Amino acid sequence: MISKHSTVSGAHFAFTDRWGGVSAVPYEELNLGGAVGDDPGAVRTNRTLAAKSLDIDPVRVVWMNQVHGRDVAVVDGPWHSDAEIPSVDAVVTARRGLALAVLTADCTPVLLADPVAGVAAAAHAGRPGMVAGVVPATVEAMVRLGAEPGRIVARTGPAVCGRCYEVPEAMRADVAAVEPAAYAETSWGTPAVDVTAGVHAQLQRLGVCDREQSPVCTLESGDHFSYRRDRTTGRLAGYVWLD
User: Fold this and answer.
1) What phi and psi values does residue 71 have, to the nearest 5 degrees?
2) 10 Å Cβ neighbour count for 220?
3) Contact indicator for 109, 236 with CB cutoff of 8 Å
4) pLDDT tens per residue, range 16-26
5) DSSP letters spanning 51-92
6) 15: part of which helix (H) or strand (E)?
7) 3-state SS assignment for residue 205
């Protein structure tokens, strides 16, 4: 269920795999995405199971309506039940104990926290979002709340790797023109993009030194959802919160 959970100075980072939930094929088992065609009741149950496994309150988790952009929302609590969840690809909070969540199935989930300032963030960095600068925008929002890049702890979760993310040559060139570190080649010798490498290069330039990335490639791992592999599939989640 939770494939990785780490704590650094009171900052918690967690990533799920696909097991331990109640969703049926093709979303089996722990689908946490509410907009992929799965039964809504199963998704609610899965979100509750995942939160309880982390000892966090399921109703105190902030989710996003992700759209592959660079917009960031600053939040101090869950969305109101009758409110429309805004279309953003990052959420930032200065509220300790509030969990932020990001959904992925090949894109790079980016979890950030400055434990000293008490500021946390979760960002969704697919290829378009990485190129658009969602990660720099997220760090900028954190800094406005008192975070310092040198204190920020960054963790990226399971994502499709540069050896597997094949793209047309023109697309690779366009991406590399913005972020050279994302230039990649597949294991079979064709043009590719490494989104996670691009994200880490951006974080490094911003002064974020404490960075770790998951070794898991979602396309290669049967324990994780992959849109590129399966098309109709569930979504993994990354969670970040501060004590």
Assistant:
1) -75, 145
2) 15
3) yes
4) 999 999 999 99
5) HHHTT--GGGEE--B--SS--EEEESSPPPTTSPPPB-SEEE
6) strand 11-16
7) helix
Strand 99-104 with 61-62, pairing: parallel
Contact 174, 146 (CB under 8 A): no
Q: Write the CA distances from 29 to 1, 39, 126, 182, integer angstroms.
A: 9, 12, 23, 32
Q: How many domains does the chain have?
A: 1
Instruction: Judge whether 114 lies within some domain.
Output: yes
Residue 159: closest CA among 129, 190, 136, 133: 129
The CA-atom distances, in angstroms, between 100 and each of 95, 111, 142, 156, 240 are 10, 9, 14, 14, 5
- 127 within a domain of the structure (yes/no): yes
Structure tokens at 8: 């650094």
CATH of the domain at 62: 3.60.140.10
19 falls within a domain: yes
Which tokens hold the place of 208? Answer: 């974020």
pLDDT, tens digit, 9 for 90 and up, residues 69-78: 999 999 999 9
The whole-number pLDDT of residue 206 equals 98
Spatial contact of 235 and 31, defined as CB atoms under 8 Å apart:
yes
Q: Which pTM was predicted?
A: 0.97
> 242 with 10: CB under 8 angstroms?
yes
